[in-house]
Amino acid sequence: MRSRKNRTGRLALALVLVGLLLFTSGCGAAKALSQLKDRFAGTEPPVPDAPKTGDLAQAPEQGIEPGQTIKVMLYFADPRGETLVAEERIIPKVVGIGRETIEELINGPNPLSGLQPTIPEGTFLNDINIRPDGLAIVDFSRELVTNLVGGSAAEELAVYSIVNTLTQFPSVQKVQLRIDGQNVKTIGSLDVSAAMTRDESIISSFK
User: Which of 32, 88, 148, 166 has the most crowded CB, counting CB atoms within 10 A?
Assistant: First the structure.
């Protein structure tokens, strides 16, 4: 008699456990089905995209706000093509301020300034790299050489307009020129094989 009661009790317990398992499984399945339904209905919150490396490289420098500007000095030739004259210009304050400044130099002087451009027409900036030791490596297209006319004076003004423009920044002490990614020994007759420093003697005032 006791044995039959024990068997009945165990059977009842087993049925309860089975019922609980089925209930739990059913809840999980119902939840999964609900999530799947939400996904297809577009109600499930979107999964954020993984960060892209390129985005980090384009992030603005800390402390620079949209719309900020900075005053820079660009060096162009005087009307006679004998010396460099500084032209003040206001440009956007950006992370790559060295590149932005050289691009402005390539664009030439203000037409009302009476100054002459130093960078030959058709020249463009390939790359600029300012190293922690203060060396700026600046790579131009070959037009800097092939389109440069005016003899040794024009060559000197072109080179030192670049050097003096970049060395106005505290982070740049020397400038090394490259043409289409290659080191060059000369630009015309001017030796540019070594990194060049600022030359104040070639700068004059013009009124």
Answer: 166
d(CA 167, CA 163): 6
Q: Which residue has the tokens 């384009």?
A: 58
pLDDT of residue 196: 98
Q: How far apart are CA 78 and CA 98, in angstroms?
A: 23
Give pLDDT < 70 ranges for the chain. Answer: 1-64, 207
- In 3D space, the residue among 101, 78, 113, 82 whose CA is nearest the CA of residue 167 turns out to be 101
pTM of the model: 0.69
Exposure string of 85-104, with b = 16+ CB inside 10 Å and e = fewer, is: bbbebeeebbeebbbbbbeb
Task: Name 178's bridge partners.
Answer: 139, 183
Q: Which pLDDT belongs to residue 187?
A: 95
Residue entry with tokens 């059913």:
26
Q: Domain coordinates of the chain in residue numbers? A: 1-48, 68-202
Please tell me what DSSP assigns to residue 48.
P
Residue 202 main-chain phi, psi, to 5 deg: -90, 0
> What does residue 154 show for φ and ψ, rounded to 5 degrees?
-65, -35
pLDDT value of position 9: 55
